[in-house]
Amino acid sequence: MTETAPALDVDRVLAALEAVLMVADEPVPVAGLAAAVGLPVEEAEALLSELAADYRGERGGRPRGFELRDVGGGWRVYSSPVHADVVGAFVLDGQTARLTQAALETLAIVAYRQPISRGRIAAVRGVSVDGVVRTLLSRGLVEEAGHDDAGGATLYRTSRYFLERFGLRSLEELPPLAPYLPEADALLDLDGVAS
Amino acid sequence: MTETAPALDVDRVLAALEAVLMVADEPVPVAGLAAAVGLPVEEAEALLSELAADYRGERGGRPRGFELRDVGGGWRVYSSPVHADVVGAFVLDGQTARLTQAALETLAIVAYRQPISRGRIAAVRGVSVDGVVRTLLSRGLVEEAGHDDAGGATLYRTSRYFLERFGLRSLEELPPLAPYLPEADALLDLDGVAS
Amino acid sequence: MATSPERVAPGPPAGGRAAFEVSLDNFSGPFDLLLSLIAKHRLDVTEIALAQVTDEFIAHIHAAGEWDLSQASEFLVVAATLLDLKAARLLPTPTVEEAEDLELLEARDLLFARLLQYRAFKQVAAHLEDRLEEQTRSRPRSVRLEPHLAALLPELVISIGPERLAGLAAAALSPKPPPPGVDVGHLHAPVVSVREQASVLVERLRGARAATFRALTADADGVPVVVARFLALLELFREGAVAFEQAGPLGDLTVLWTGAEHGGVAVDDDYDDGAGPAEPVDGPSDEGRTEEDA
Q1: 3-class DSSP state of A163
Q2: In contact, C21 and B102? CB cutoff 8 Å
Q3: φ/ψ (deg, to 5) at C251
Q4: How many C-beta neighbours within 10 Å does residue C132 have?
Q5: Which residues are CB-contacts of C205 (< 8 A; sequence separation ≥ 6)?
Q6: CA dihedral B119, B121, B122, B124 (to 10 degrees)
Q7: How far is CA C31 from CA A35, A151, C28, C79, in A?
Q8: Does C119 touch chain B if contact means CB atoms closer than 8 Å?
Q9: Helix axis angle, C50-63 to C69-90, nearest 10°
Q10: Among A98, A168, A177, whose Cβ lies nearest the Cβ of C157?
Q11: What confidence score (pLDDT) does residue C186 get?
């Protein structure tokens, strides 16, 4: 903790760190967090450790259902393993071993148009695909492939596991699209579609 | 809060709810949360409200950087708007894409007149709305709602995602349209003016 | 067209508008434009002095130059109503009982009612926008399932092969059919070409020298073809290629070939969609013009 700062300021900085960490999908490097809240890296690191201890119930409050962990390269909030059984049952509820039609269609688009952003996929499918992409990510069929040069949107590609599951040695073994299309040149011009 | 349960049990259930909320990627209906932690719906609801108050800093602790909100048909964790600037620096997503005036007007008409066909929306706006409706569909803000009995035209309604994005628990929370409409008297009085 | 600086332009800049809309400066429809003109003159919608805004409304439409009529028809309806009302005010109206006046009053009330309705939604849309703006300051937690939880999920059963995947991709990437809506195809491009029907008639009449209209249309597939052949005959008559004989009213119409034995006959294609000068019509061309709605 910073010793000179008044309590209110520390509270505010702690809350700002929590806000970022709670909605970040990837571990956030401490340097970035420090810069965002205007603190030296060491102080930010100390505050992050404070938060982690707070969530574990070591600062007077009850143990939380979430944890803040330094996973090498950054900090991320996870669901607490103490409640893994409850969470596991919740996650499994309503889950099926099969991919939905929407998921298969999205997977097909990623396979043939990779790397591609969620916005582009949504433009092709005509519906929001955030949930579906997340499913494909958790299922390991697609993975991130850097960022779009223009807007910085995350790009996705199919994974090695995808190839494995579809019995392909490489993407080149994907069947050509042409025979399945009404006309080869009738393909949507993806560049013309809003992302 | 359940009054009979020992504090430790309540703490454990609160933490279990938190743990489940950490893995949710859409608003979770209270029934689903209640089932996950094995509580009646009313008790689960009370505990969720407790958590929300706790995060707001109304239970003795500091205000957190995150909020628990009941919108769009369920409960979900959000970053606190107080720290929007800091969060915005880290989390890039489609949320910031603005809706055009045309899209907002069309969305308003769908929201208040649903289910409604494109033709009837166009009649209110005075211009064709095909493109705008397509945009709203692709953003997931409106969805199809069957067909008109008479002409068979596709009908549209707002989605649960619409409720969530606009921070509404239900359509009833939309501000009433009546104050925006002139009094019936004013309409009747039209004959007396502009002559 | 230029945007005059004093114009009240509601909403975001024109860049935010999608291309499908009537691009009339920044206005997303006739009501939008009308409301902004009313606001500019600080008029109350219910007491709108129409003459003050009619000219400007018409000027805006005029300035728009070419636009897609199917999109712009509402602008024209509003403009026509405004003009009617303005004209009615300029002319002395001795009695209000006349049917025309009542129609005008109804048209005005309808316009006001629609304008007021639109204004209500526009205002409530502004409210929604504020709300959205406010909500955008919070972001939902939406993270990938942690590996130990993802591991709990049942092993995926993937029941399709690469070929089916290609089929799905092809279907998704192919241009979508236009959304179900009003098919305006029938409003454009005559389904039956008068010029084509003229070709058919020229060939038959050159062979037969004379034929009744009944005989010439006996094989017509539907009323449009009959109409097209009738129009074609009028064109041929104008060119002096045919003459008509009719014994009496409602009697059989006999068509006589009076044109040249060979060569083309100019048939103006006023009726057809294609622009350009009249082209000579031969017998059925060897190019096999079969398209009906080119």
Answers
A1: helix
A2: yes
A3: -75, 170
A4: 18
A5: C211, C216, C242, C255, C256, C257, C259
A6: 130
A7: 49, 35, 8, 11
A8: yes
A9: 150
A10: A98
A11: 46
- The per-residue pLDDT for range C14-72, each reduced to its tens digit, is 333 333 334 444 577 888 888 888 887 777 776 666 777 888 887 877 776 666 655 56
Report the candidate in A79, A74, A77, A78 with the shortest Cα–Cα distance to residue A33: A74
Q: What is the length of chain C?
A: 294
Structure-token pair, residue C213: 């209209």
DSSP code per residue over B31-67: HHHHHHHT--HHHHHHHHHHHHHHHTT-SSSPPPSEE
Q: Among all residues of chain B, which has the CA nearest to that of A79?
A: B19
How far does Cα B164 stand from its chain's mean position? Answer: 3
**Exposed, middle or buried by CB within 10 Å (0-12, 13-18, 19+), for A161?**
middle
Closest CA to B64 of A94, C237, A22: A22
Out of C156, C162, C174, name the one closest to residue A168 (CB).
C162
Pick from A18, A22, A87: which is nearest to B20 by CB?
A: A87
Residue labelled with tokens 């939008």? C32
Q: How many CB pairs under 8 A join A and B?
A: 128
Taking the C-alpha atoms of residue B75 and residue B69, their distance in angstroms, rounded to an integer, is: 5
A64 closest CA partner among A76, A46, A78: A78
Chain A hits for C136, Cβ within 8 Å: none
ipTM: 0.74
pTM listed for this prediction:
0.64
Of A9-23, C65-79, C83-97, C261-275, least confident by mean pLDDT is: C261-275
